Amino acid sequence: MGRGLDAILQSPETDITSRDISGDYVAGAVAEIDINLIETNPFQPRTEFDPTALEELAQSIKEQGVIQPVTVRKLGYNRYQLISGERRLRASKLAGLSKIPVFIRIANDEQMLELALIENIHRENLNAIEVAISYQRLIDECNLTQEQLSEKVGKSRSAIANFLRLLKLPAEIQIALRDGHISMAHARALINIDDKETQLKLLQQIIEDELSVRQTEDLAGKAKSPENTREPHKQTNYLPDHFKAQIKTLSQALNTKVKVKRNVKGQGSVVIDFKNQEEFDRIIALFNKQ
Questions:
Q1: CATH for 5-108, among 3.40.50.11270, 3.90.1530.30, 1.10.10.10, 3.30.530.20?
Q2: What is the pLDDT confidence band of residue 266, given thresholds at 50, 70 and 90?
Q3: Distance of alpha carbon 187 from alpha carbon 193, whole angstroms
Q4: Which of 42, 245, 266, 283 has its CA 20 to 30 A from that of 255?
Q5: Per-residue model confidence as pLDDT tens digits over 233-250
Q6: Residue 6: beta bridge partners?
């Protein structure tokens, strides 16, 4: 399990070099097969394919053909399963190709998963969450340690650990990272905050104010500090007793929930709840009677 991707692809256990595969195609050479005979890879870790990028690749394939063959394994007579190259396969179908060049190999399910994951990890446009999920699947489903994974993908153990930590973030932050609203460096700064609510508030601030990584790290550092996390709660929404009494009176008069926000300077706002249009109209009518 300590071999790299090249060693796996060139191994006698996974590479056919001398046998006839189907009567027509000799293993070890590039073959052209019917594109409809290729099943998609159930172990494909990539879940997002940019439609615009696929259209651009399809147009390139129409003009230049498929430059790099996809890799498949043979399941039986006239049955093949994709190991790597799903983006090229999808674009080829969009381009209207009836046949596609392929490398044909033998691989069991574990090798299929490993090959597909490693092949995808090395793609430049794979987002950080997809890489992290791929790393975690290699560890869980191929029984790899972080050290073994480090050797296979050519990354340091610390780099792999940083990707895996992203999966501990709340789903909202993972989605923002996946969709490109924040960078991996932003996400790593948020990891250091223990409180989920604080993480999400800072996430919103990063996006709305377009904070730099340095600004995010500074705010995250302040959020980690006990004196900075507790003090705001003491100072925000301070309501004197007579405010609380008036809120209760107003709530009873309007027959709905009333919330008041007030800071230490005395500035604030009143929020009156309503369930639907009819209740809104009823509340407005009460004010109009005054």
A1: 3.90.1530.30
A2: confident
A3: 10
A4: 266
A5: 444 456 677 777 888 888
A6: none
